[in-house]
Protein backbone atom coordinates (compact mmCIF):
# COMPACT_ATOMS: atom_id res chain seq x y z
CA UNK A 1 0.00 0.00 0.00
CA UNK A 2 0.98 3.61 -0.54
CA UNK A 3 -0.74 5.90 1.93
CA UNK A 4 -0.15 9.52 0.92
CA UNK A 5 -1.12 12.68 2.76
CA UNK A 6 -2.21 14.45 -0.42
CA UNK A 7 -2.63 13.98 -4.16
CA UNK A 8 -1.17 17.37 -5.07
CA UNK A 9 1.62 19.40 -3.50
CA UNK A 10 1.98 23.14 -3.95
CA UNK A 11 3.15 24.07 -7.44
CA UNK A 12 2.70 20.56 -8.83
CA UNK A 13 0.14 18.69 -10.89
CA UNK A 14 -2.19 15.95 -9.71
CA UNK A 15 -0.11 13.00 -8.38
CA UNK A 16 2.98 14.42 -10.09
CA UNK A 17 5.27 14.08 -7.07
CA UNK A 18 4.26 10.41 -6.66
CA UNK A 19 4.45 9.28 -10.29
CA UNK A 20 8.01 7.86 -10.18
CA UNK A 21 7.01 5.75 -7.18
CA UNK A 22 3.67 4.74 -8.71
CA UNK A 23 5.31 3.62 -11.96
CA UNK A 24 7.28 1.04 -10.02
CA UNK A 25 4.58 0.23 -7.48
CA UNK A 26 1.93 -0.55 -10.12
CA UNK A 27 4.37 -2.08 -12.62
CA UNK A 28 2.28 -5.27 -12.99
CA UNK A 29 -0.98 -3.37 -13.58
CA UNK A 30 -2.26 -2.31 -16.99
CA UNK A 31 -5.44 -0.82 -15.51
CA UNK A 32 -6.16 0.76 -12.14
CA UNK A 33 -9.60 0.69 -10.49
CA UNK A 34 -10.37 4.21 -9.23
CA UNK A 35 -12.77 4.81 -6.33
CA UNK A 36 -14.03 8.41 -6.70
CA UNK A 37 -16.62 8.28 -3.89
CA UNK A 38 -14.97 11.12 -1.93
CA UNK A 39 -15.19 13.39 -4.98
CA UNK A 40 -14.34 17.05 -4.33
CA UNK A 41 -17.22 19.49 -4.41
CA UNK A 42 -18.67 20.31 -7.80
CA UNK A 43 -17.29 17.46 -9.91
CA UNK A 44 -18.80 14.20 -11.09
CA UNK A 45 -17.40 10.71 -10.75
CA UNK A 46 -16.62 10.78 -14.47
CA UNK A 47 -14.71 14.05 -14.21
CA UNK A 48 -12.77 12.86 -11.19
CA UNK A 49 -11.89 9.61 -12.96
CA UNK A 50 -10.68 11.58 -15.99
CA UNK A 51 -8.33 13.55 -13.71
CA UNK A 52 -6.89 10.29 -12.38
CA UNK A 53 -6.63 8.93 -15.93
CA UNK A 54 -4.59 11.91 -17.07
CA UNK A 55 -2.07 11.35 -14.29
CA UNK A 56 -1.77 7.58 -14.66
CA UNK A 57 -1.83 7.82 -18.44
CA UNK A 58 1.48 9.65 -18.28
CA UNK A 59 3.08 6.44 -16.92
CA UNK A 60 1.24 4.13 -19.31
CA UNK A 61 -1.55 2.93 -17.01
CA UNK A 62 -5.28 3.10 -17.75
CA UNK A 63 -7.93 4.00 -15.16
CA UNK A 64 -11.51 2.78 -14.83
CA UNK A 65 -13.92 4.21 -12.26
CA UNK A 66 -15.71 1.78 -9.97
CA UNK A 67 -18.99 3.48 -10.89
CA UNK A 68 -18.55 2.29 -14.47
CA UNK A 69 -19.09 -1.34 -13.42
CA UNK A 70 -22.46 -2.98 -12.80
CA UNK A 71 -21.00 -5.02 -9.95
CA UNK A 72 -18.70 -2.99 -7.69
CA UNK A 73 -17.64 -6.00 -5.62
CA UNK A 74 -16.52 -7.95 -8.65
CA UNK A 75 -14.67 -4.89 -9.94
CA UNK A 76 -12.69 -4.77 -6.69
CA UNK A 77 -12.03 -8.51 -6.69
CA UNK A 78 -10.71 -8.42 -10.27
CA UNK A 79 -8.68 -5.20 -9.96
CA UNK A 80 -4.96 -5.26 -10.80
CA UNK A 81 -4.51 -2.20 -8.61
CA UNK A 82 -6.77 0.22 -6.73
CA UNK A 83 -6.65 3.96 -6.12
CA UNK A 84 -8.97 5.84 -3.76
CA UNK A 85 -8.78 9.59 -4.19
CA UNK A 86 -9.30 12.45 -1.77
CA UNK A 87 -12.28 14.62 -1.01
CA UNK A 88 -14.70 14.21 1.87
CA UNK A 89 -13.99 11.21 4.09
CA UNK A 90 -17.54 11.11 5.48
CA UNK A 91 -18.98 10.74 1.99
CA UNK A 92 -16.32 8.22 0.98
CA UNK A 93 -17.06 5.98 3.95
CA UNK A 94 -20.80 6.47 3.47
CA UNK A 95 -20.59 5.26 -0.14
CA UNK A 96 -18.32 2.32 0.75
CA UNK A 97 -21.00 1.13 3.18
CA UNK A 98 -23.90 2.02 0.86
CA UNK A 99 -22.36 -0.04 -1.94
CA UNK A 100 -21.39 -2.80 0.52
CA UNK A 101 -17.77 -2.93 -0.64
CA UNK A 102 -15.75 -2.03 2.47
CA UNK A 103 -15.14 -5.63 3.54
CA UNK A 104 -14.43 -6.71 -0.04
CA UNK A 105 -11.86 -3.94 -0.37
CA UNK A 106 -10.22 -4.99 2.91
CA UNK A 107 -10.08 -8.62 1.74
CA UNK A 108 -8.32 -7.91 -1.55
CA UNK A 109 -5.83 -5.57 0.09
CA UNK A 110 -4.96 -8.24 2.64
CA UNK A 111 -4.43 -10.62 -0.28
CA UNK A 112 -1.89 -8.22 -1.80
CA UNK A 113 -3.71 -6.12 -4.40
CA UNK A 114 -1.61 -2.92 -4.68
CA UNK A 115 -3.43 0.11 -3.27
CA UNK A 116 -2.88 3.85 -3.40
CA UNK A 117 -4.76 6.19 -1.10
CA UNK A 118 -4.49 9.97 -0.99
CA UNK A 119 -6.05 12.16 1.68
CA UNK A 120 -9.53 10.65 2.31
CA UNK A 121 -8.32 7.50 0.56
CA UNK A 122 -5.55 7.34 3.16
CA UNK A 123 -7.82 8.10 6.10
CA UNK A 124 -9.78 4.90 5.45
CA UNK A 125 -6.66 2.73 5.77
CA UNK A 126 -6.63 3.17 9.54
CA UNK A 127 -8.72 1.70 12.32
CA UNK A 128 -11.41 4.34 11.88
CA UNK A 129 -12.01 7.71 10.22
CA UNK A 130 -12.20 9.75 13.43
CA UNK A 131 -9.08 11.77 12.63
CA UNK A 132 -10.27 13.22 9.34
CA UNK A 133 -10.24 17.00 8.99
CA UNK A 134 -13.45 16.97 6.92
CA UNK A 135 -16.88 18.34 7.79
CA UNK A 136 -19.58 15.71 8.45
CA UNK A 137 -21.69 16.49 5.39
CA UNK A 138 -23.28 13.02 5.50
CA UNK A 139 -23.72 10.42 8.24
CA UNK A 140 -22.09 7.07 7.42
CA UNK A 141 -23.42 3.93 9.13
CA UNK A 142 -20.12 3.54 11.00
CA UNK A 143 -16.79 5.30 11.48
CA UNK A 144 -15.02 1.94 11.25
CA UNK A 145 -12.77 1.71 8.19
CA UNK A 146 -10.34 -0.79 6.66
CA UNK A 147 -8.00 -1.33 9.59
CA UNK A 148 -5.15 -2.31 7.27
CA UNK A 149 -2.80 -0.46 9.61
CA UNK A 150 -3.05 -0.43 13.41
CA UNK A 151 -3.23 3.36 13.74
CA UNK A 152 -5.14 6.29 12.27
CA UNK A 153 -3.97 8.84 9.74
CA UNK A 154 -4.35 12.58 10.08
CA UNK A 155 -3.70 13.68 6.51
CA UNK A 156 -2.48 17.20 5.63
CA UNK A 157 -1.04 17.47 9.14
CA UNK A 158 -0.14 21.07 10.04
CA UNK A 159 2.22 22.22 12.75
CA UNK A 160 1.31 25.18 14.96
CA UNK A 161 2.67 28.44 13.54
CA UNK A 162 4.71 30.33 16.10
CA UNK A 163 3.32 33.79 16.75
CA UNK A 164 0.02 33.09 14.98
CA UNK A 165 -2.85 34.86 16.76
CA UNK A 166 -5.52 32.42 15.52
CA UNK A 167 -7.46 31.18 18.56
CA UNK A 168 -8.88 28.01 17.00
CA UNK A 169 -7.70 24.51 17.82
CA UNK A 170 -4.47 23.19 16.35
CA UNK A 171 -4.27 19.70 14.86
CA UNK A 172 -2.32 18.60 17.92
CA UNK A 173 -5.09 19.86 20.20
CA UNK A 174 -7.74 17.99 18.22
CA UNK A 175 -5.75 14.75 18.31
CA UNK A 176 -5.32 15.11 22.08
CA UNK A 177 -9.11 15.50 22.34
CA UNK A 178 -9.45 12.26 20.35
CA UNK A 179 -7.14 10.52 22.81
CA UNK A 180 -9.29 11.60 25.74
CA UNK A 181 -11.77 8.96 24.55
CA UNK A 182 -9.76 6.66 22.25
CA UNK A 183 -6.62 4.51 22.49
CA UNK A 184 -5.70 4.31 18.78
CA UNK A 185 -2.36 5.95 17.86
CA UNK A 186 -2.54 8.74 15.27
CA UNK A 187 0.09 9.60 12.68
CA UNK A 188 0.18 13.21 11.53
CA UNK A 189 1.24 12.88 7.89
CA UNK A 190 2.52 16.08 6.33
CA UNK A 191 1.87 16.98 2.68
CA UNK A 192 4.64 15.67 0.46
CA UNK A 193 5.20 12.50 2.50
CA UNK A 194 3.69 9.04 2.35
CA UNK A 195 3.82 5.58 3.87
CA UNK A 196 4.83 2.46 1.99
CA UNK A 197 3.25 -0.60 3.60
CA UNK A 198 4.39 -4.11 2.72
CA UNK A 199 2.95 -6.74 5.08
CA UNK A 200 4.17 -5.64 8.55
CA UNK A 201 6.89 -3.36 7.20
CA UNK A 202 6.04 0.33 7.13
CA UNK A 203 8.38 3.00 5.74
CA UNK A 204 7.98 6.76 5.75
CA UNK A 205 8.94 8.28 2.39
CA UNK A 206 8.94 11.76 0.89
CA UNK A 207 10.18 15.11 2.08
CA UNK A 208 9.09 15.38 5.70
CA UNK A 209 9.09 13.64 9.05
CA UNK A 210 5.76 12.54 10.50
CA UNK A 211 4.38 13.18 13.99
CA UNK A 212 3.18 10.23 16.05
CA UNK A 213 0.61 10.76 18.78
CA UNK A 214 -0.12 8.11 21.40
CA UNK A 215 -2.48 8.40 24.33
CA UNK A 216 -0.84 9.85 27.48
CA UNK A 217 2.53 10.16 25.73
CA UNK A 218 4.53 13.06 24.36
CA UNK A 219 4.29 13.32 20.52
CA UNK A 220 7.29 11.89 18.67
CA UNK A 221 8.80 12.92 15.32
CA UNK A 222 9.37 9.91 13.06
CA UNK A 223 12.28 10.22 10.65
CA UNK A 224 12.21 8.99 7.06
CA UNK A 225 12.77 5.27 6.67
CA UNK A 226 11.38 2.16 8.29
CA UNK A 227 9.13 2.91 11.26
CA UNK A 228 7.60 0.81 14.01
CA UNK A 229 4.10 1.68 15.22
CA UNK A 230 2.35 -0.64 17.65
Write up this protein.
This is Dipeptidase E. Belongs to the peptidase S51 family. It comes from Polaribacter dokdonensis DSW-5. InterPro entries: Class_I_gatase-like, Peptidase_S51. GO terms for molecular function: serine-type peptidase activity. The chain has one domain: Class I glutamine amidotransferase (GATase) domain (Rossmann fold), CATH 3.40.50. It is built from seven helices and twelve strands. The strands form two sheets. It has an eight-stranded mixed sheet. Strands 6-7-10-11 form a four-stranded mixed sheet. Strand 2, helix 2 and strand 3 form a beta-alpha-beta unit. The protein has 230 residues and is an alpha/beta fold. The model has no long low-confidence stretch (mean pLDDT 95). The chain is globular, with a radius of gyration of 17 Å. The longest helix has 13 residues. 25% of the residues lie in helices and 21% in strands.
In short:
InterPro entries: Class_I_gatase-like, Peptidase_S51. By secondary structure, this protein is an alpha/beta fold.
Topology, element by element:
Blueprint: E1 2-4, H1 19-25, E2 31-35, H2 45-57, E3 62-65, H3 72-77, E4 82-84, H4 89-98, H5 102-110, E5 115-118, H6 120-123, E6 152-155, H7 171-179, E7 186-189, E8 193-198, E9 201-206, E10 210-213, E11 220-222, E12 225-227
Parallel strand pairs: 1-5, 2-3, 2-4, 4-5, 6-7
Antiparallel strand pairs: 1-8, 7-10, 8-9, 9-12, 10-11
Amino acid sequence: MIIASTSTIYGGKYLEYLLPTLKSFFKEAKTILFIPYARPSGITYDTYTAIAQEAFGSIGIDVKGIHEFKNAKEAIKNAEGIFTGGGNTFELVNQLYKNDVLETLKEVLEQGTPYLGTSAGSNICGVNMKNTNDMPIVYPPSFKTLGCISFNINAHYLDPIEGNTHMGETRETRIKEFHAFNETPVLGLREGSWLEVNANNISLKGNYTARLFEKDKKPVELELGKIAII
